[in-house]
Amino acid sequence: MAQVSFSKAAALSMVLLVASMAALVSAQEMAPAPSPSLVTGAGFSLPVSGAFVAVSVVVSLMGLLKM
Fold first, then answer.
1. Does 22 fall in a domain?
2. Structural domain total, the chain
3. Known PANTHER family for this protein (predicted)?
4. For 48-62, how does the pLDDT look when each residue is reduced to its tens digit (9 = 90+)?
5. Pair 7, 14: CB distance under 8 Å
């Protein structure tokens, strides 16, 4: 049996490890990133209730009609 020094065996095992890791990475399928989902209502948020807004519109319209 041929004698192999420890440093050559360590170097060979490191080369095999790197080659196997490269094969695993290249075997993975590259999929495109998913598109961001639309956040509904993010640009239209009212800090007050809809009833308060409706009442204030009606009151302002009543004030305009009295003029």
1. yes
2. 1
3. PROTEIN, PUTATIVE-RELATED-RELATED, TRANSMEMBRANE PROTEIN
4. 777 888 888 888 887
5. no
List the domain range (segments joined by +) for residue 13.
Answer: 1-27
3-state helix, strand, coil in the chain (%, to 5): 60, 0, 40
DSSP state of 48: S
> For residue range 11-49, what is the model confidence (pLDDT) as tens digits?
888 888 888 877 776 656 667 777 777 666 556 665 777
Q: Which helix (H) or strand (E) holds 56?
A: helix 50-66
pTM listed for this prediction? 0.36
**10 in Cβ contact with 17 (< 8 Å):** no
